[in-house]
């Protein structure tokens, strides 16, 4: 996924205060600088090639809605040939079919999206919304800078810009937590000190987090709201096999148990990173010893369950 952003020139410069300068010199007053803004776009990248941006994703969505290449092409303002060229390019770059044409001749029906295409549409929509929110916040910060009096000295300018960049930097905050699981708040149990938050992940599995009452209120957590659960890979313990039996689960004090299939094992000299693909397509990683990998028979395709304490989960929200 790639994003591109741009902004208009700073109002601090020769054009700033143009009207008063013109009055003093006798020159015609200069037009006021336009309000500073921020723009950008999002697209999927497959290596050095562009898999698709808003136009191609819109085409996929239209195919899903109409079940017809002709109808989809017309809906997005594209020619029939152009639509098929775009589909062929996306199929090749994705490494697997995104669109399957089962029946019908030229312009006929029977065109369907694969599960991978449906996930791409959903993912693009989510990322595009977050990107739009990022641009809105960035634009607000830039406008705040533009509303200040333009500094006279270079040092003042540098200080102002530095402050603004620091604000923008917070929008791109990164976390050391290996696992970032996006979901929806399913339940919120209030306590005197701590709140218990149940989160439903894509695919239907749930996890539980325990956060302070103050943190829950500061984040604005509410049932139905989007949230991201952050879990360090070192906090995740793996159990061989799929869903735990009722007897086995009853003997575990750990609240969170996410079943999945091993999608990768990356070994080191002492430990290994094991990734599980969960129902719904999300991935969770755990760090275990090489000896444990062998003892548990963890290899690609094997079933396993990731378990971790509710207290090991940190929560975050957008905005």
Automatic annotation (TrEMBL):
Residue segments, region Disordered: 1-41
Signal peptide: none
Swiss-Prot/TrEMBL keywords: Molybdenum
Domain of life, source organism: Bacteria
Keyword DNA repair: no
Residue span, Mop domain: 174-240, 251-317
GO biological process: molybdate ion transport
MF term (GO), any: DNA-binding transcription factor activity
Name the record gives this protein: LysR family transcriptional regulator
Species for this entry: Paraburkholderia silviterrae
């Amino acid at each position: 996924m790639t994003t591109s952003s741009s902004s208009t020139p700073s109002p601090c410069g020769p054009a700033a205060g143009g009207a008063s300068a013109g009055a003093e010199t006798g020159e015609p007053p200069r037009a006021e600088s336009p309000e500073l803004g921020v723009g950008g776009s999002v697209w999927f990248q497959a290596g050095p090639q562009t898999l698709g941006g808003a136009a191609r994703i819109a085409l996929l969505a239209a195919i899903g809605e109409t079940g017809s290449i002709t109808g989809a092409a017309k809906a997005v303002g594209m020619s029939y040939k152009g639509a098929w060229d775009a589909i062929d390019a996306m199929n090749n770059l994705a490494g697997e079919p995104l669109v399957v044409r089962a029946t019908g001749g030229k312009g006929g029906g029977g065109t369907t999206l694969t599960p991978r295409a449906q996930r791409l549409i959903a993912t693009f929509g989510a990322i595009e919304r977050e990107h739009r929110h990022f641009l809105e916040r960035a634009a607000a910060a830039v406008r705040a800078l533009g509303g200040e009096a333009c500094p006279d000295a270079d040092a003042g300018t540098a200080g102002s810009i530095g402050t603004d960049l620091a604000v923008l930097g917070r929008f791109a905050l990164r976390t050391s937590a290996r696992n970032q699981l996006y979901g929806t708040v399913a339940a919120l149990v209030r306590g005197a000190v701590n709140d218990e938050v149940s989160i439903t992940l894509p695919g239907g599995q749930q996890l539980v987090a325990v956060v302070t009452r103050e943190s829950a209120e500061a984040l604005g957590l509410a049932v139905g709201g989007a949230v991201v659960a952050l879990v360090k890979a070192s906090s995740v313990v793996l159990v061989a096999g799929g869903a735990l039996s009722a007897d086995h689960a009853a003997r575990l004090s750990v609240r969170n148990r996410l079943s999945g299939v091993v999608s990768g094992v990356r070994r080191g000299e002492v430990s290994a990173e094991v990734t599980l693909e969960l129902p719904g397509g999300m991935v969770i990683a755990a760090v275990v010893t090489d000896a444990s990998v062998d003892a548990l028979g963890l290899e690609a395709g094997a079933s396993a369950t990731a378990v971790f304490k509710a207290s090991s989960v940190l929560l975050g929200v957008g905005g």
